[in-house]
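for the writeup, i need someone to sanity check this before i put it in the appendix. the sequnce is what the collaborator sent (i think, or maybe the updated version? ugh). structure was predicted straight from it, no edits. if anything looks off just tell me and ill rerun, i have time this weekend
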Amino acid sequence: MSELPCNKPVRTQGGSKKFRVRACQNGKSKTIGFGDPNMTIKKSNPERRRSFRARHKCDSNPPSKMTARYWSCKKW
């Protein structure tokens, strides 16, 4: 997994998460998996998008780049 480029999400093949990313910040790196592989996100629907972003506090309390929440919010 260390061959992943920094901060570039990639789709996983048959794993427990839909995407993974090697998050790099301040000289540290960490592999993070995020997303449910059995769900579609339908981010083109503005009401779903607004609800997801509010539920995960994407705008009111921005997460650290080293968390799965950050990468989920970035995808949405």
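The chain is about 25% helix and 20% strand. The longest strand covers residues 19-25.
thx in advance!!
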